[in-house]
Write a structure and sequence with these properties.
It contains ten helices and two strands; from the N terminus they run αββααααααααα. The longest helix is centred in the C-terminal third of the chain and has 17 residues. It is mostly helical and 203 residues long. Strands 1-2 form a two-stranded antiparallel sheet.
Length: 203
């Protein structure tokens, strides 16, 4: 019985944070949505006020729900450009950092990282951000791995396998700074001005 009043207070606090308006479209009297759809996960950053329309569907594609990963970024950064369809290709190229697959081959990860850097580089102001992201993803480990496989020494390859495992274990730590850089990059893109409406209504 104690948990329910606490949850009600938390939801009221989240609603107050958004002036009791939908975080996406600014409509009055929104519902508090669990971003990951787990109603047991009442972490504040998992709660987002959404009106029934925005709660049930992606505002840009009514046949689909908004991707939880995109909603999580929106909850943290509150930038409406995150909900733009133009953001989706960028999001799809860095979400593997958030959810590293232990079964994925190391060099497949490297290829994905390289694709992300190349994609960012062609956006407005992308060169600066591409270099920052490259710095986060392409550490000296990659040089050591390449050299070890080049030598074909059994001991070098064993060391390399350990380095690969360690890199993949630490991989998800890069997600928060990379996501921040990608969201910051949005301010330089000439994307629909109408997306600012939700942000203005949430102030």
């Amino acid at each position: 019985m104690v948990r329910k009043p606490g949850l009600r207070a938390l939801k009221e606090s989240v609603l107050k944070e958004y002036n009791h308006r939908c975080a996406v479209c600014g409509t009055d009297r929104p519902q508090v949505h669990h971003i990951d759809e787990n109603h047991e996960n009442n972490d504040r950053l998992n709660l987002l006020p959404l009106c029934p329309n925005c709660h049930l569907s992606d505002q840009h594609n009514p046949t689909q729900q908004i991707a939880p990963g995109i909603l999580k970024l929106f909850r943290i950064h509150k930038d409406p450009a995150i909900l733009s369809p133009q953001f989706t290709p960028l999001f799809e190229r860095f979400q593997h950092v958030a959810m590293p697959d232990s079964a994925i081959q190391f060099y497949a990860v490297v290829e994905k990282n390289d694709e992300l850097v190349r994609f960012v580089d062609v956006l407005t102001m992308g060169t600066f951000y591409a270099e920052e992201i490259r710095r986060l993803l392409f550490d000296p480990t990659h040089v050591s791995i390449s050299e070890a496989y080049g030598s074909a020494s059994p001991s070098a390859i064993a060391d390399t396998d350990r380095m690969k495992k360690k890199y993949l274990e630490d991989f998800a730590n890069n997600y928060a700074p990379i996501a921040r850089l990608c969201v910051e990059l949005l301010r330089y893109q000439n994307w629909p001005a109408s997306l600012k409406k939700g942000q203005e209504n949430s102030k």
